[in-house]
Amino acid sequence: MKVLLTGAAGFIGMATALRLLARGDEVVGLDNLNDYYDVALKQARLAQLSAQPGFRFVKLDLADRPGMAALFDAERFDRVVHLAGQAGVRYSLKNPNAYIDSNIVGFMNVLEGCRHSAVQHLVYASSSSVYGGNSRMPFSEHDGVDHPVSLYAATKKANELMAHTYSHLFRLPTTGLRFFTVYGPWGRPDMALFLFTKAILEGRPIDVFNEGRMQRDFTYVDDIVEGVVRVLDKAAEPDPAYRADQPDPATALAPFRVFNIGNQRPVPLLDFIACIEDALGLKAQLNLLPLQAGDVPASHADVQALRDWVGCAPATDLRTGVARFVAWYRSYYRV
Fold first, then answer.
1. Which end of the chain has fewer CB atoms within 10 angstroms, the N or the C?
2. Which residues contact 3 (CB under 8 A, 6 or more apart)?
3. Residues acting as catalytic residues
4. Are 177 and 259 in contact (CB under 8 A)?
5. First to last CA, the chain
6. d(C-alpha 24, C-alpha 21), whole Å
7. Residues near 68 by beta carbon (within 8 Å), at least 6 away in sequence
8. pTM assigned to the model
């Protein structure tokens, strides 16, 4: 297939592109290489991709409407994996406009491109953040998600609504994947694993929010990629059991689906830190702080729907995944 993969210089984007290229797909990777975090890391990821046959890179901003329209018109993609967007819950408190430009305007341009070039299937990144103030665990796609607690979460919920509209009006098959705290080699520098590892190696304290009383459903990047690729190969379909008088947020009469993709094993933050300490052979200095605005105290994915749909679910244990990240970090940064 000829696949457009947005966010190709990103953490999950690089890993997904490598998997698609390994099986023989042609991948056009799009990224704007913004400076939200270290551009050199993004360029290093692209270097990994550029060494593979079948990969081409396009530097383009999602919010560039004429540029996006021209790209879709010229390339005629079979399928699209949309992983680009402005990430980060905390940064949305500082620069909300970046989230509207990338996650709303940019996603609109992706939808329009798919619509006008008859793309067979759009798979896009949503987030566990959409669950917001929900307290019922595990988080289920069949529950409502109408109370986001960050603008980032609100834009991801908006993406799901926009995708449903295009599935309904234009019969465009769309599948949203709600990622749960993805980690692993080549990860983002703004994520806890990267921040904690760097600080511990440098002998600095680490900021531990909610005084350590947090739980996260940490999901290893290879498991995420497996889910993305399997879902890409099985286009969303209308749900024959859908009832308009009892609407299910995860399905529709249109070719629309939403799935959780998480490890199903919430880990207390202090246990997560202990895994990093073990992998590094060093002890962390903890700076205990209150819960930050926009954060939620816990996440836990129900992935039965994903397992039923494509026959897989994340399974990499945290200790193994953290050790792989630490090995990559030490090698990449030579520490």
1. C
2. 20, 25, 26, 27, 28, 77, 78, 79, 80, 81, 232
3. 152
4. yes
5. 40
6. 5
7. 60, 62, 109, 110, 112, 113
8. 0.95
